[in-house]
Design brief:
The protein is α/β, with parallel strands linked by helices. 37% of the residues lie in helices and 25% in strands. The protein has one domain (3-202): 3-Layer(aba) Sandwich (Rossmann fold), CATH 3.40.50.150. The protein has helices spanning 3-17, 23-34, 52-57, 71-79, 118-128, 147-158, 170-180; strands at residues 42-46, 63-68, 86-90, 103-109, 129-138, 183-190, 193-202. The longest helix is centred in the first third of the chain and has 15 residues, at 3-17. Bound molecules: S-adenosylmethionine. S-adenosylmethionine is lined by residues 4, 8, 46-49, 68-70, 73, 92-93, 109-111, 114-115.
Length: 205
């Protein structure tokens, strides 16, 4: 088991109890995501956590497979009542989800910055998408955050209260998408979440 899986397994139950930190930004994220989805879409979510977002978006798509590296997160997701077009699977973002490609859309919320190699995962997502398909993400750009937050994260990591993170700026994150071959069709931030760009990247048709 990876260190990331161990960390998220350990905190999964307390993560599930935590209220959404910025409800307004979450609502805006869902609205902006729905605008890019359609009822015939086959969708993959990576780093789905306890599955709440997949369950909310399910009625807008044909099928959504939501994956997470943490078995405990997936166990919590599976405890929720889900419609037939949703399935939860334990899988790292680095793994290929058999039988699901090509996809219309891939989602990754609050996840790219906790991957060891976000650009490699962006590349895998590109390959898994249909031409014209979209990768919709929202990620923390830790290198844009102030020094106090970064020191606090470091201190929390030292006592096992924060996961390993990949630190990048917003321009560096955008460059990862464009180097991979994506075109950025939307990039914005939401209320009180200025350092977490919401990015819609399209695989050219
Ligand atoms: C900050 S939580 C975000 C969960 C959810 N997307 C949300 O917005 O509430 C990050 C999630 O990514 C998962 N994760 C961490 N490393 C991962 C990896 N390499 N592959 C897939 N999921 C991973 C964790 O288990 C955790 O559930």
């Amino acid at each position: 088991m990876t260190n990331a899986a161990q960390f998220w397994d350990r905190i999964a139950r307390s993560y599930a109890r935590r209220p959404v930190q910025n409800a307004e930004a979450y609502r805006e994220t869902l609205d902006a995501t729905r605008a890019h989805l359609s009822p015939h879409d086959k969708v993959l979510e990576i780093g789905c956590g306890t599955g709440s977002t997949a369950l909310i978006l399910a009625e807008h798509v044909a099928q959504i497979t939501a994956t997470d590296i943490s078995a405990e997160m997936i166990a919590i997701a599976n405890e929720k009542s889900a419609p037939e077009n949703v399935r939860f699977l334990q899988a790292g973002a680095e793994a290929k989800v058999e039988g699901d490609t090509p996809l219309d859309a891939v989602l990754a919320f609050n996840t790219l910055h906790i991957l060891d190699d976000p650009e490699a995962v962006i590349g895998r997502v590109f390959q898994a998408l249909k031409p014209g398909g979209v990768f919709i993400s929202k990620s923390a750009c830790l290198r844009d955050m102030n020094i106090f937050i970064r020191v606090m994260i470091r201190a929390m990591q030292m006592v096992g209260k924060a996961p390993a993170v990949s630190s990048f700026t917003s321009p560096e994150l955008h460059a990862m998408f464009t180097r991979t071959g994506f075109e950025i069709v939307e990039s914005r931030t939401f209320a009180g979440a200025g350092k977490l760009p919401f990015i819609v990247a399209r695989r050219p048709a």
